[in-house]
């Protein structure tokens, strides 16, 4: 953990030096400010892992049934009725007439969308 945190702080120092150089940009400044947060996250993660070793969270009962709470997942959309839209019905009839006029052998009265 210490090596990772020191590495992050070293990268922050390097990015700060790049920002101060003649070819540096504000992107380097952003990275120079971002790397210390990564170092802080290393300490935070280590702290949380140590706490979980001392007092692990309670294990769930493997034999108990679990249910998804109502309203957690979005509702599935209901399928539209096949002939609900009169414009679509007319368009499909028009396409069927065009297909018959072309003399296609595989045409029938199915709707095409």
UniProtKB/TrEMBL annotation:
Name of this chain's protein: Lipoprotein LprD
Protein origin, superkingdom: Bacteria
Segments for region (Disordered): 59-86
Source organism: Mycolicibacterium madagascariense
